[in-house]
Specification:
Chain lengths: 109, 134
């Protein structure tokens, strides 16, 4: 399960639901594995007059999800079909959702 | 966690349960211990989960793949996101850190997030956000 941090302990936060795979706030669903990239990712959910939104430039932050960069394992084996030299393949490891952090910001509306 | 010890070496340490990583420490693994875990119920720590939280920078120093990111919440929200911010670096350890190595991202009415584009650690800043006619 992701780790949840509160920006201001004791303050009200937006109604949210979290599982091992996704965070839901309003009608916005952030699926952690889908947002993972080769660099660390920061998904920001904001609230404005238009409601909750991801990736908008407007409104107040209600939650920040930080997802670590994808990690790979390299396995030696096979040969390069072009050069005939020994080759290795890189395979992405599945996301460890315990390493995801969710930050909940104070929410008034 | 690990912290610098002597010249170029690191010393490993474990924090107390629920304690955050102290200054000058680098978080590398997070342990999750289920409730009621004792020597009798789980002598070989089979139910303790180890979470890898290391930041790996394969492209360093040309680029940072996972710059440290912190959130900055305003005590009073602004009426718009078109505020400006002045940053003054008070102190840092390990490497120099210029004010322009701190990148302001996700500008919102109630705060923003800051990325650190420097090898420095334990950077302390003073900031001021202003918005005319707020």
């Amino acid at each position: 399960m992701p780790m949840i941090n509160l920006i201001q302990p004791g303050a009200r936060v937006a109604p949210f639901a979290v599982t091992d795979a996704a965070l839901t706030i309003g009608d916005v669903v952030v699926t952690f594995a889908d947002e993972q990239q080769d660099t660390s990712a920061e998904v920001v959910i904001r609230h404005s007059a238009a409601g909750f939104a991801v990736g908008s430039d407007d409104g107040a932050i209600v939650a920040v999800v930080r997802i670590p960069a994808r990690q790979y394992v390299e396995t030696e084996g096979g040969t390069d079909p072009m050069s005939g030299e020994p080759a290795s393949t890189r395979e992405a490891l599945p996301l460890d959702t315990n390493a995801v952090t969710i930050e909940l910001w104070p929410f008034a509306g | 966690m690990a912290h610098p010890h002597g010249s170029g070496t690191y010393k490993l340490a474990v924090t107390a349960i629920g304690q955050s990583v102290p200054d000058n420490g680098i978080e590398i693994y997070r342990l999750t211990i289920p409730a009621g875990s004792t020597d009798a119920t789980d002598p070989y720590l089979a139910n303790v989960t180890l979470t890898d939280v290391r930041r790996i920078e394969v492209g360093y120093p040309e680029m940072l793949d996972s710059p440290p990111s912190v959130s900055l919440a305003f005590t009073r929200p602004m009426r718009g996101t078109d505020w400006r911010m002045d940053i003054d670096v008070v102190s840092s350890t390990g490497a120099p850190c210029r004010a322009d190595q701190i990148v302001i991202t996700n500008r919102a009415t109630n705060g923003c997030t800051l990325w650190l584009g420097s090898a420095a650690d334990d950077v302390r800043i003073r900031w001021q956000a202003t918005r005319l006619h707020d």
